[in-house]
Specification:
Elements lengths: L1 H10 L3 H15 L8 H6 L6 H17 L5 H10 L3 H7 L6 H14 L9 E3 L6 H14 L3 H7 L1 E5 L2 H17 L10 E4 L7 H4 L6 E6 L11 H7 L14 H9 L1 E12 L9 H10 L1 E7 L13 E10 L2 E6 L12 E4 L14 H8 L3 E2 H4 L1 E4 L6 H4 E2 L3 E2 L3 E6 L1 E6 L3 E6 L9 H4 E5 L13 H7 L1 H9 L1 H4 L27 E4 L2 E2 L6 E3 L5 E3 L2 E4 L3 H11 L2 H10 L2 E2 L3 E3 L2 H4 L3 E2 L4 H9 L3 H12 L7
Helix pairs in contact: 1-4, 2-4, 2-10, 5-10, 7-8, 8-10, 19-20
Length: 614
């Protein structure tokens, strides 16, 4: 529907005008006539509105070319699409696919099947009403009640944007109309408000909790959260660790607004399994010990418009001492699934939850000493404008490297250092092939200090002239709000010091990557990671351990997933890997042995774990 989206984005920025256009087109395309409903009549574009009607006809002609049938799912997707980009960043609204909504509703309704006719169902961040739409449809199918009664007594919604609540009312009204209910007015329990501060008892005098809460909490990362919202987050116990993303408090809010034996069904981010900002949330779950079912989609991208990794959480407000967990693809949701049991007592809220193959992972982590207690992992340098500082010379002479960046610039060799992008080690390569040059405006000390500007200008006039030429670009780092020691300094001061022994490896990989050991203390790195410090022998040993299939098994089961089955190797995800004890003879054996199968068998025996399936 690319051209449909394009037309709508160009047509108007006013929600009411866009809503009129979409609803009028939907009614026209589906031959639905409004006779009684005052709300829909006020929205529908009439023929005597010449300019608006002309726009409507143009929109309908585009729809005719783009989609065969304009049905409710297309309507819901359009409503979600026309949320402004600015609001989307702040409020995190996103379209939830139909199969996900239907699965969550089916599971939740089954839990309340004996009392469904009187169940109160809510979405506390309802957006444009997709979940409430399907919940209302399913209620009517199972209870045979009218939509009018369902809307008045069983469906409840809340959203921070008034236009989202308007769209939810429109969606539900058209649903009822499409099935023959054309009432003058429907009574809705749909409210505009901030979920973080909203008090349901102030709106519903008899409020005793919802029987079912459904939804897709907002996808807003901590850096995009407003200052006012950050203040409100502090009121919630689950937001006491790290910099919480906005979805995190929605668990506590949802659970606290459930009835005595209610059920919560969310599709949300799976990062809380291991993230620092999910630590307090994990502790909250373990303290509550509620019946918790998790369907983890791993690295699968569920949403078209959002690069995020998700899971379905079904939480019943009854006590149970274990979590039911399964990792599966979204297309297999409807199939019968066998969950593994992960006992709350075996989980560590501080370290992070290991939900896949919990017993094996626990055994690995309890072996020897934790990786993070022995080894130091560093991120590479951060210029925040690599394209300015890092380059492959197009040629060189005795005194200069020549850098092509718009124009051809000579750069003094003495201000340059060798640098490697260790992120490229997800595929076999060599240090020589990875090596580039970096303009290094620091002295040559063990802990380099930034050069004085006058010194830079006098001693490296060509490099200074080049950097001056790019000064405006450098000023845009950190969205123009960065505070640097000097305008030509790197964006961050990390990893500038000389480090003799370094084991380079990438941040993410889809299989066991290349690990390259280097002892050149002048060699810098960027983008990827390195284990630094320690002796050459110590790094040779950890290199062999990290190359083992046991280590990659651990990464696959515990680390943050990315698309195309890539996994993170960042320090946060490897710090708890247990490093087995090795005596002197075993250390010599590990260092000298080159056969991977022999080493795999050796390490698995040391950990008393057999991985024949790998």
């Amino acid at each position: 529907m690319r051209n449909v989206f394009k037309y709508l984005s160009q047509c108007s920025t006013k929600p009411n005008e866009v809503d009129r256009l979409i609803i009028s087109a939907f009614l026209h395309k589906n031959k639905i006539v409004v006779k009684k409903n005052e709300f829909l009549k006020s929205i529908t574009i009439q023929e005597n509105e010449k300019e608006a009607f002309s726009t409507l006809q143009q929109f309908i002609s585009i729809l005719d070319k783009e989609i065969v049938r304009f049905e409710f799912e297309e309507l819901i997707e359009l409503f979600e699409f026309v949320i402004s980009p600015a609001d989307r960043i702040i409020n995190g609204a996103i379209y939830t696919p139909l199969n996900i909504r239907e699965f969550i509703i089916k599971q939740s309704f089954h839990s309340k099947r004996d009392s469904l006719a009187i169940a109160k169902i809510a979405d506390i961040a309802c957006g444009c009403g997709g979940f409430l739409f399907n919940a209302a449809k399913q209620l009517k199918k199972q209870t045979n009640k009218t939509y009018s009664e369902i809307f008045r007594t069983q469906i409840f919604g809340l959203d921070i944007q008034s236009y989202s609540i308007t769209r939810t009312k429109l969606l539900l009204s058209v649903l009822a109309l499409s099935e023959g209910e054309d009432k003058k007015e429907f009574h809705f329990n749909l409210f505009v408000g901030d979920t973080l501060t909203f008090k349901w008892k102030e709106k519903i005098s008899t409020f005793a909790g919802f029987d079912i809460i459904l939804g897709n909490p907002p996808y807003v990362c901590s850096r995009n959260i407003s200052e006012e919202t950050k203040i409100n987050l502090k009121n919630w116990e689950v937001c006491k660790s790290g910099h919480p993303d906005l979805y995190i408090p929605f668990f506590q809010i949802g659970i606290e607004n459930l009835s005595i034996d209610g059920i919560l069904g969310y599709i949300t981010m799976n990062s809380f399994f291991k993230s620092l900002n999910g630590r307090a949330l994990r502790a909250y779950f373990q303290k509550q010990s509620l019946s918790f079912k998790i369907i983890d989609f791993g690295a699968e991208q569920i949403f078209k418009s959002k690069n995020t990794y998700t899971c379905i959480c079904l939480i019943e407000k009854i006590t149970l001492n274990y979590i039911k967990y399964i990792k599966c693809e979204s297309k297999k949701l409807s199939q019968h699934t066998i969950y593994s049991r992960v006992y709350y007592s075996g989980l560590d809220s501080k370290k992070g939850w290991n939900l896949q193959n919990n017993e094996i992972i626990t055994k690995i982590e309890s072996t020897g000493v934790a990786f993070g207690d022995i080894y130091t992992t560093r991120n590479g340098i951060a210029t925040l404008r690599n394209e300015i500082y890092i380059f492959n010379p197009v040629r060189e002479d005795k005194d200069y490297y020549y850098l092509q960046n718009g124009s051809l610039y000579p750069i003094e060799k003495k201000i340059c250092k060798d640098i490697v992008n260790s992120n490229k080690l997800s595929r076999p390569t060599s240090i020589k092939k990875l090596t580039e040059k970096v303009i290094f405006p620091y002295d040559d000390g063990n802990k380099p200090k930034l050069l004085e500007e006058i010194f830079l200008e006098r001693n490296y006039p060509k490099a200074y002239e080049y950097l001056q030429n790019k000064k405006n670009i450098l000023s845009q780092r950190d969205k123009g709000k960065g505070k640097y020691e000097k305008w030509f300094a790197f964006g961050r001061s990390q990893s500038l010091e000389k480090m003799k022994n370094k084991l380079f490896f990438p941040k993410i990989s889809d299989k066991t990557p290349s690990y390259i050991l280097n002892n050149n203390d002048n060699l810098l790195f960027y983008n990827g990671l390195a284990i630094v410090g320690g002796t050459k022998k110590e790094l040779q040993v950890i290199k062999k351990i990290m190359e083992s299939r046991l280590f990659w098994y651990y990464i696959e089961k515990t680390s943050k997933p990315y698309s195309a089955s890539y996994y993170s190797l960042s320090g946060n995800y490897i710090r708890d890997f247990g490093i087995c004890d090795l005596d002197k003879d075993e250390i010599e054996f590990v260092i000298k042995e080159k056969d991977k199968n022999t080493l795999n068998s050796f390490f698995e025996e040391k950990y008393q774990i057999t991985l024949p399936q790998i």
